[in-house]
Amino acid sequence: MIANILTNRIVNDIAGGASQGVIIGLVALCLVLVWRATRVLNFAQGPMAMFVTYIGMTQMDHHVNFWLAAVISMVVGFMFSALTEIVIVKPLYHKAEINPIVVMVGMFTLLEAIASAIWTNIPRYPTAPYSSINFQSSGNPTGLSPLSTFQIAAALAVMTFVAVLFNYTSLGLKLRASALAPEVSKLLGLRVSRLLTLGWGIAGAVGAVAGVVISLNPGGLSPNMLDAMFILGFIAAAIGGLDSPLGALISGVGIGVIMQLINDYWNSNYADMVAVVLLVVALMLRPQGIFTKNSARRV
Amino acid sequence: MSGTFKRLAWVLGGLVIAMAIASIQSGTDAANLTKAGAYFIALVGLSFLTGWSGQISIGNSGFMLVGGYAAAFWTLHHPGEPVVISLLVAIVASAFVGLVLGMPATRLRGPYLAGMTLAFAVALPYVPQSFAVSTLGGSQGLTITPLSAPQWFSHLFDTSTTLPVVINSRFTAMVSVLIAALVLWLMSNLFASKLGRAMRLVRDNDVAAELVGLHLGRTRAQAFVVSAALSGLAGALLVMVSGTASPSTYEFGFTFSIALLTLMVLGGIGSLGGAIIAALLGVYSMQITTWITNHTGLGPTSWVSNKLPNLAPNMENILFGVLLIVTMIFAPRGIVGLVSGLRQKLISVTRR
Amino acid sequence: MISISNLSVAYGAITALDDVTIQAPTGAITAVLGANGAGKTTLLRTISGLVKPRSGSITANGHALIGERPDAIARLGIAHVPEGRGVIAEFTVEENLRLGALGAKTNVTSGLEEQYALFPVLKERRKQYAAQLSGGERQMLALGRAMIANPQILLLDEPSLGLAPLVTQDIMNTIKTLCANSGLTVILVEQNAKSALKISDFAAVLHVGKSIAVRPAAEVAADESLRSYYLGMAE
Ligand SMILES: Nc1ncnc2c1ncn2[C@@H]1O[C@H](COP(=O)(O)OP(=O)(O)OP(=O)(O)O)[C@@H](O)[C@H]1O
Ligand SMILES: [Mg+2]
């Protein structure tokens, strides 16, 4: 009975879809973090994560093991994102809202081109620490492999870390305050500018985890590996509401599962379109996202 | 009324010069001019949306795809009918898609809108690729007989010294420039019209716009429709000249949406003159990049290129990425803004 | 002691403060009165570094403030309760208070205890979101959040705004007590001149960006000719 369930096609699709969905949720989380902190939608999130993933993962060529390479990606991801905020985003606060969008689009083009110049467009396949062969249940494959289990666990661990940091620590309180009410926070003595930079840094580190985890997928590591993921992450964030980390996770998993079902039962080319249709319908129904409270106004 | 005539005179003057240039161009340069005309139209479409109604789109390549396919589809099934009809069909089809997308879009603010249009542009090429493969040609796309020079045009040139291909390119360049000039004239009038002013008000101050009785949503949707129609026309023009519409056409992919945004910002958001500069930049970007790399010691024989053999093909995007960031931070009004700033300085200096 | 000399502030072409000179002695309450648009909020925002002045100087307990960043000024022991209170509606009462202590790097636990002793209502509602508080409770929260930082100087921008007369009186008395107990220097911006003058030691009157008088509160209260200025009935 249990064996039957574990190898059932739909159950497998749901498990496999959820494992990709959690990663979509992770990308969405980066977008939400940056959006909540600074009201900027980081269109270069994907390339930024890709770039630092390359920096870390290519260290494996120099006999660095996977875990250390992942940590290098995260640290570089943090610093790179923080530096980006300082150098090119800070000058644009208080400007028209399209200005930061345009600048981040420029960053997108720039980073993909530099990555392609340095590492070429030929994908690399970092050696994963776990097998990608699905677990078996009485001789039939289930929907999960050791690798996908690791991917889910890594994504959930990062999300838990972020949730605890933001909701249960003093630093989290300061970060949230700076994002919600920068002027009041300054009057209370918070170094708001520095905290916003820190917010970007954290998002960059989370993005690096997403990049590392995704580089273990069959597509491997390539300059545009996160383009599709970014779109899906954005769709998840927009459906969930750019202000809601939990919404990002839930809709990320939902999208992952739906896409896996479409892949399996229909045609993989339709999956992206369905995601876009979902987005359009969701935005028509609730332009601010499904999980955001109705415009909580500051007093 | 005099304003209208003045604008007409300017456009006609420009048109005559462009036509003269087109008639003496080599084959490749004429082909570039053809492309520039189409790019100009697409850029005006985007500039109108962003610069005049304050909405951002990273999805206009999608409208170009719709226009391109519509024109190809119509031409395929109605061979021998005038090109104008194919173009009109493309305009109507893309305007309709613009309306459908514009409805939810008008309720969205900047980042949501940008993301949604980007998602649209990414997903759209999958439609002809996977749906109705028999009618839309799947990944092969649709192939039609490309636009060619009519008899009377060929007779204008000495066919013993000029190849038919060159004559053809000159012809398409003229058609493209003519349509671009028409768009320029129409849009310069639209910018000065009541709708143009309404758009500007909606962009600058939506509260004030509501107060004077403008319907925000409707004005924004109108801007979307106009933008989509122009993009569709540009896409159709490219298809009529090249003879193919396929999911992998460069101008139909989301990277071209990004390129359009980049070019528009470099030229100057919301400016027709900026769109002309941007179109030429877009067409000659490769040559400009090569020139710059060769003159900055980054050329193919430099040590950097020896170390990074893959640098050369990416130089264009690196340059444009940097330019986009720098422009937005230091000169948000683009080349046009810089020029008019310089002119103002000169005037104030000479007055003193 | 906070001393403002020859301060001028402009927003583009609009002059908001014009050569203003006001002194607020240590341990006293100095009221700043004036009609709508007189420049009262601008004065406080300039002290806090949120607005850059065109000219003039501000010193507080010997520190020159002009050119300092707002957060640095706050950490010098200058607490500013802005117009409209500035409590963060999405935060609970306790989170708002904690934030005050975190910003000033004072002890959170003992600070919370002190403020809860001072404002028992806040203790009752500590887990509630600030959005759910009444106007008077919000003002107490804002005061508590300022006081948890152990400031030497307290800038209050219209604490009576939108409050019923009885609640206003309550708040004013609290301010008076705070000042008397801790040697706090207070600048109290008010339109409600009557309540403000009752608890103030000194009073300054602003009229369309100019400071008209800085005198003992009782004198200002008694001076019929000044009344028309701060009541906004001049000319
Ligand atoms: N950010 C700003 N930009 C432009 N003008 C401003 C700005 N803030 C204030 N002003 C102008 O400066 C002048 C003084 O304003 P301020 O807010 O300091 O007055 P106030 O005395 O606090 O008034 P109220 O009692 O209504 O709060 C007014 O004319 C106001 O319109
Ligand atoms: Mg005020």
Describe the structure.
The complex is a heterotrimer of chains A (299), B (352) and C (235). Chain A has 299 residues and is mostly helical. Helices cover 71% and strands 1% of the residues of chain A. The termini of chain A are far apart. The model of chain A is unreliable at 294-299 (pLDDT under 50). Chain B has 352 residues and is mainly α. Chain B has helices at residues 2-24, 27-53, 60-77, 83-105, 110-123, 126-130, 133-136, 151-154, 164-192, 194-204, 206-211, 216-242, 254-267, 272-295, 303-307, 311-330, 334-351, and strands at residues 142-143, 244-245. Chain B has a two-stranded antiparallel ribbon with strand order 1-2. In chain B, α2 (27-53) runs parallel beside α9, α2 crosses α14 (272-295) and α3 (60-77) runs antiparallel to α4. Chain B is globular and about 65 Å long. Chain C has helices at 40-47, 70-75, 93-104, 108-118, 120-124, 135-147, 165-182, 193-199, 217-222, 224-230; strands spanning 2-11, 14-24, 29-33, 55-60, 63-64, 78-81, 153-157, 185-190, 202-207, 210-216. In chain C, a hairpin with a 2-residue loop joins β9 and β10. Chain C starts with a strand and ends in a 5-residue tail after the last helix. Chains A and B meet through α5, α10 and α12 of A and α4, α5, α6, α13 and α16 of B. The complex binds adenosine-5'-triphosphate and magnesium ion. Magnesium ion is lined by residues 40-41, 83 of chain C.
